[in-house]
Amino acid sequence: MGFDMKRLMTQIFKILGLVLLTSQFALADEVAGHIGLMNGGLIARHADGSFNIMGPKSEVIAGDNLETAKNSYAQVMMNDGTQMTLRPNSNIKIEAYQFKKEAPTEDNAVYRLIKGGFRTLSGLIGKRGNADAYKLRVTTATIGIRGTDFTTRLCANKDCEETETQQESLVTVGRVMLVQGDLNAKDATGKIRKLVVGSAVYEGEVLSTAKDSHAVVAFRDEGRVTLQEETIFHVETFQFSRHQANVPDQENAIFRLLKGGVRVVTGLIGRVNHDNYHFKLTTATIGVRGTGFDAWCNAECATGGANPGATQTEPLKGAGVYVWSGQVALSIQNQSQLVSVGQAAILSRELKPVPVTNIPASVIDNKIPRPDSVKVDTQKEFENETAPGSKPEQKEKSTTPSSKDKGESTKPTTEPGVYVTVHDGQVILAQSDGNRLDVSKGQTGYVNEKIIMKLPVTPSFMSGEKQHDFSEIGSGSANKTTMGPMQSGCVVK
After folding, report:
1. pTM tops 0.70, yes or no
2. Residues sharing a CB contact under 8 Å with residue 491, sequence separation 6 or more, in sequence order
3. Domains (ranges, CATH) in the chain?
4. For all residues of the chain together, what is the average pLDDT?
């Protein structure tokens, strides 16, 4: 039998075609990541028109459209370490995704936000190899990422206005002025959100810092608190309004230190009636007369042990207070110990307030910044916030940006378009005509078909307040023993 070259070549082409077809299917089905925490409904629409109902650990494929339902959130964990949390009624498409640890120059990630919004903590793509490898496309704009943590919202019709209206009913009692490390807030439902500089703090929330972290929170009565590392601090009650200056009996603040240490500067609450201000530690109370002090709650005080007291040789292993301005009274039941400037007192193992005879050097020379060392313009920080018991303050009506607005705007906007708030790092907004705008940490950029600019004020619907973000932990995953409000506590008046 003679050699049939034509037949052989036909078979080779058939094999090559089959290999090519198989590789295309393999590429289309390449796993790009998986679903992490989620709450509610999420579906993935594939390129072939089919769809999957997703759940935790479900695989995410390049080319998928991920869509969240009403009142639903979903955390997407990509292979390069990128974390995205989709808010309700959102749709994001993974247009392209390629990541290989051994080939950084071949990295490529292109996402398209079709509807809604999400928060992103970017991974390795864009941080190694090609800095332009990570892109987010939204309508007519492209967002270039330079290793960052940011929130993006696509506002159409009145969806963002509705979110802003809902959030206006929440009362901002404090605002984060400084963060070193990690600071979280947990609400009464068990939801946890990450706080950054500028984040609002609400009545009833439990604030917590991580190891090697500290933060300063300013309150609307001009009081401030520095949370030291591994501290849990409960804002139990806070009622204050400048409109109530003539009715101080309506002012009220109850703080509870559950664990760790704080540095406190008291504000206007209690200016007339000192009993309106309560600072609690396990079973004791610190009563204040307009002052600055440090308080701590460690060992059994922090764990809910039977005896939260400390000893003279180890005063920091328990509950105590040190005063650096004014005077406080450490009280328990009917017993009280006055503490003046440069003095300290502890709740003893006999559950009595007693002075500390030898104050540790770490207490006297505390390296964590005092809260009054952080400059705060209280009126500016809370000028547009609704105060407890008062009518909402009239806000200046936003105007529609004009095509002349470039770079820096003088007024915020709630117009339809794309909003990007940078929590850390930098993003680059780029219009289709080539106009570009750099947006850095703490800034919010706005872009539509004609306008690209920075906003002087971040709209409330972008702040993530009371909303799920990538750092939020589901209520079932939080340690309720260490994070949840506790009913016992010492009180500092």
Report:
1. no
2. 278, 279, 280, 281, 284, 285, 286, 287, 331
3. 5-138 (no CATH), 170-382 (2.60.120.1440)
4. 80
